[in-house]
Amino acid sequence: MTDFLRHKHTMPSPFKNRANRAIWLKLHRYLAFGAGIFFALLALTGSLSVYREELDELLNPHLVIEQPQGAYQSLDKIIASVKKAHPERYGSWTLEMPRTSQSMMTAWYDKPRETYFELYAPLMVSVNPYTAEVVDSRFWGQTASTWLLDLHTQLLAGQAGWRAVGVFGLLLMTSVCTGVYLWWPGVKGIRQVLKIRHQSGMMQLVFDVHRMVGLLTALPLLLLACTGFLLSYPVLLETLTGSSGMVHGETGRAITSTAIPNNHPTSLEAAEFIARGAFPRAKLRRITTPTGDTGTYLINLRQNGELGQRHPFTTVWVDRWSGHIKEVRNPDRFSYGETLSTWLWPLHTGEALGAKGRLAWFLIGLGLFFLCVTGWLRWLYRCGLIKDKAVDFSPVRKQFNRLAIMLYRFSLLAWRGGALLLRTLMPLAIQTYGILLHRFKLAFNKNGPPKS
Questions:
Q1: Is the pLDDT of residue 237 over 70?
Q2: Would you state the pLDDT for residue 445?
Q3: pLDDT of residue 254
């Protein structure tokens, strides 16, 4: 009897498990109701921002070079053209190399007076690299693609919005974890929860698809939420890893010139050539002009193996007056903490995974948007605000069957045509081969082996 009571007290109570599930379910719902609209907004804007440059070129066809010809103009000629178009803007400019052969080169001016007090709103000057012609000048945040990215990163609310997005990333991690916990049926019930049941009505189908999409996107969403949170609060990772100056967009400490100003300053082309001496196989991504007499050239390169495509961390500082390399930042020599910091942005944007990774991240964002919408539909149904209805796939099934029959007939026709063509051409090919072989033998017997 004593053993039975002891065993009874050690057995897990089903009522306790149900109580825990109810608590997690409430937390999952409260997160969906309280932050779901922001989850959906961040998901949709994040998906579109994955293809920000492509979207900008789609909406602005004049920024696409239809027929690229020749080589790029020199960096010095391009920067001279930019300064001629904006003679009143003094200080440093950054030239960013084109994304493709049909893309514009972009000259960035960080703090224009028109948007000086905004969190981030540089001037973007689009330059044709083949002709050095200034095609367009726009401010960040005043184009559709940059406005979407600001909405995604800071909710159009400046620094406070930037911090709020980090909090929503933390809440999203909690929501994903609670969703996985609620989904887990135990080993014996996995097969049951993987079923998609459309015979039981629309709401059951919505619920099943919601669970399936949530399961497939759980790990990527955790990665995106975690990297998004750390991008909003980079000091946390710097404190944990002991790294500093590795925030996205930063270049570390300021490097100043110690040479005496002279009448023969180093040109952009020369500075870029000098920087390549340290990394001969690297590709130029951007170059920043010096500010004042003590400024230095900042040349940003990308080595093979760096995750960042648009914002790599290989950097060379070249003295404006002496042409000497002042300092080099080589990611191959980073500590583990610094390397981890450099991964945040390319992992969050998907560029670290290449074209397929960007597409996957685009779909993951749409998946989160779908989860939010289907979650709201499920809640509206439980509240009696919408009604369930039967799911009828018969019209779709008829169209699918027609398409399948058409594809089958086309493949059968193609197979028969290919076989007929092969039967027709094969004898002709054999006959041609025989004629050529016979002529070769005659030439060989008459003149000996052909000379090479």
A1: yes
A2: 55
A3: 81
Whether 300 and 312 have beta carbons less than 8 Å apart is answered as yes
Query: Taken in order 426, 427, 428, 434, is the CA torsion positive or negative?
Result: positive
Query: How many other C-beta atoms can be found within 10 angstroms of the C-beta atom of residue 338?
Result: 19
Q: What φ, ψ does residue 315 adopt, rounded to 5°? A: -140, 140
3 state DSSP class of 316: strand
Q: Spell out the alpha helix ranges (H) of 325-383.
A: 336-349, 354-382
Report the residue count for the chain.
Answer: 452
State what percent of residues in the chain have pLDDT above 90: 59
Chain segment 319-368, per-residue pLDDT in tens: 999 999 999 999 999 988 888 888 999 999 999 988 999 999 999 999 99
Q: Specify the pTM.
A: 0.81
Evaluate the CA torsion angle 71, 76, 77, 79 in order and state its sign: positive
pLDDT score recorded for residue 412: 67
pLDDT digits (tens, 9 = 90+) for 360-404: 999 999 999 999 999 999 888 888 888 888 877 666 666 767 766
The residue extents of the domains of the chain are 17-60+146-243+351-391, 61-142, 400-452
The confidence score (pLDDT) of residue 11 equals: 43
Name 96's bridge partners. Answer: 106, 286
Long-range Cβ contact pairs of 138-145 (< 8 A, separation 24 or more): 139/112, 139/114, 139/115, 140/115, 141/115, 143/56, 143/59, 143/60, 144/55, 144/56, 144/59, 145/48, 145/49, 145/52, 145/53, 145/55, 145/56, 145/59
Instruction: Yes or no: say if 248 and 311 are a contact pair by the CB < 8 Å rule.
Output: yes
Question: Could you tell me whether strands 283-288 and 133-139 are parallel, antiparallel, or unpaired per DSSP bridges?
Answer: unpaired
Of 109, 159, 156, nearest in space to 134 by CA: 109
Other Cβ atoms less than 10 A from the Cβ of 7: the count is 9
